[in-house]
Amino acid sequence: MTPLNAKPEARRDARWMKLARAHDPILHLHCILVSELCACFSAFLDLPRDQQLGLTRAGLLHDIGKIKVLAAILQKPSPLTPQETQIVQGHAHFGHEMLLEDGETDELLLTTTRDHHERLDGSGYPRKLTAPDISIAVRIVTLCDVFAAMTEPRPYVAAMKWDEALAAMAKKRTRLDLDLLAAFATMMTAINFPKKRFSLFQDSTRRSSS
Q1: How far apart are CA 131 and CA 117, in angstroms?
Q2: Could you give the domains of the chain?
């Protein structure tokens, strides 16, 4: 429930997320995960507070245009046809237009919603942008979106482990920002390493007690 004293953008965001959850619960969870990753990564990069907040919001709404895509396509338990793929790719444009029509004026949010599927080598969509025209904010949301998509279970693709996803992303050398990816990998390793260290500690304790 949105607090009565919430800012207008918080109320709008809550409304969008309610629509996303009703349309496709998996979409809703994906948006939350990307938002959390954007929040963590922007803080890890020590970006100004306003940019951290902006990127957190951008992660939350980056895929909002998918509520205009049939849920049956989003939830299809097999690979999409070329026509279905084209329909899904329209979500970037849909989301940008929906936010504009709703009175959104935050340029970072509008740009990342429209451009988060652009790639540095020009192979992305919807505008086939290349590196000089892709902002740092878009690159950050893109990394978080790609990582989330790879590590989430999908109807016909098994979820990757976090380190497997990073390795796969590192192979996209012409498409993703490798400097940002290196920083993102450092952050994810720091988050996950204590788990490994604790696991090793447990193994050592078991061996010494046996």
Answers
A1: 12
A2: 8-203 (1.10.3210.10)
| 153-162: long-range pairs with CB below 8 Å, 24+ | 154/26, 155/75, 155/76, 155/77, 155/78, 156/76, 156/77, 156/78, 156/79, 162/188, 162/192
* CA distances in angstroms from 123 to 10, 78, 129, 130, 161, listed in the order given: 34, 24, 8, 8, 26
For 25-84, the pLDDT digits (tens) are: 999 999 999 999 999 999 999 999 999 999 999 999 999 999 999 999 999 999 999 999
Q: Token pair 């990127």 is at which residue?
A: 55
Could you say which DSSP state residue 131 is in? G
pLDDT digits (tens, 9 = 90+) for 100-124: 999 999 999 999 999 999 999 999 9
Query: Distance (Å, rounded) from C-alpha 188 to C-alpha 44?
Result: 10
Determine contact, residues 141/34, Cβ cutoff 8 Å.
Answer: yes
For 106, the enclosing helix (H) or strand (E) is none
Residue in 19, 24, 16 with CA at minimum distance from that of residue 155? 24
Q: Give the separation between CA 156 and CA 199, rounded to whole angstroms.
A: 31
Residue 92's Cβ-side half-sphere holds a number of Cα atoms within 13 Å equal to 19
What's the CA gap between 29 and 54, in Å, rounded? Answer: 19
Alpha carbons 70 and 187: distance in angstroms, whole number? 35
